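Deliverable D5.2: sample structural annotation.
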Amino acid sequence: MPLYLSKFSYTPETWGRLINNPEDRRKAAQAYIESVGGKLHGFWYAFGSHDGYNLWEAPDNVSMAAVALAISGGGALSSFETTVLLSVEDTMEALQKAGEIKYRPPGS
């Protein structure tokens, strides 16, 4: 199954709710991805431009998009970005296929 890396940030209101009622959000994230047949591999909070990161496994892009849309639509986050991760093997295959494409730069 494909892996996905999500970066998220909470709204100030969400942080306020979590301060008043601390909650381990890994359980919620795990339930969301399992509902589409996937698996949560990790959940971390961080300093920097994003408040946290998730590593997910999902059956396909549509399933991961459904989870991302459901979370984003909930209003607790100020940002949510998901990146599809490619294995080294998939990247090697892509490199081989790229070598077969006869790219022409604009204006040449």
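Annotation notes: The chain is about 40% helix and 30% strand. Residues 101 and 107 are 18 Å apart (CA to CA).
The annotation will be released with the project's public dataset once the embargo ends.
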